[in-house]
Amino acid sequence: MSNQISNQNFPIARPEWIEAYAASNPMEANMLVGLLQSAGLEAGLRGPGMAGALGEVPVDALITRIFVPAEQRAQARDILHHYETATPDEWQCSACGELNGGSFELCWQCGTDRP
Ligand SMILES: [Zn+2]
């Protein structure tokens, strides 16, 4: 028995790094680490959500903490804050009233142009 396989895809935080954010699950955490890395920062994960079968743990055990080097924390927090406060740019169709995501230019329900 080993956790090696389930941890394989996650970047592991170094012991001296400090916490920057607690993501609600390992998938979100992994995505946010990718976001930080694409901004040129180092980041990694540590936490109970990384080990074991996801179906067998309580919800709060999925919380996965993101760690970064101390000197990059302010920058990381800034990026993560933008992520946290980004509101989906939803719009309501004038024809059928359907709510559409900001990336849609047409109503997905009836095909009417975005107002
Ligand atoms: Zn519509």
Give your account of this protein's structure.
The chain is α+β, with helices and mostly antiparallel strands and 115 residues long. The protein has a single domain (4-85), classed as Alpha-Beta Plaits, CATH 3.30.70. Helices cover 26% and strands 16% of the residues. A 3-stranded antiparallel beta sheet has the order 1-3-2. It has a two-stranded antiparallel ribbon with strand order 4-5. Strand 4 (91-92) and strand 5 (99-100) form a beta hairpin. The protein is elongated and about 55 Å long. Mean pLDDT is 81; it is low at 1-8. The structure holds zinc ion. Residues 93, 95-96, 98, 107, 109-110, 112 line the site of zinc ion (ZN).
What's the structural blueprint in terms of helices and strands?
Blueprint: H1 4-7, E1 18-23, H2 26-38, E2 44-46, E3 64-68, H3 73-85, E4 91-92, E5 99-100
Antiparallel strand pairs: 1-3, 2-3, 4-5
The structure holds zinc ion.
What are the key terms here?
115 residues, Alpha-Beta Plaits, three-stranded antiparallel β-sheet, 26% helix, 16% strand, disordered N terminus, binds zinc ion
Bound molecules: zinc ion
Distance between the termini: 56 Å
- Write down the overall geometry: elongated
What fraction strand? 15-25%
Average pLDDT figure: 81
Strands ordered across the widest β-sheet: 1-3-2
Q: Note the main sheet.
A: 3 strands, antiparallel
Give the helix tally: 3
Query: In the CATH scheme, what's the topology name?
Result: Alpha-Beta Plaits
Compressed to H and E, one letter per element, the order equals HEHEEHEE
* Gyration radius, rounded: 18 Å
By CATH, the architecture is named 2-Layer Sandwich
> How would you classify the helix and strand content by structural class?
alpha+beta
Count of beta strands? 5
Give the uncertain stretches in residue-range form: 1-8
- As for the number of domains, it is 1
Helix proportion: 25-40%
Q: Regarding CATH, which class?
A: Alpha Beta
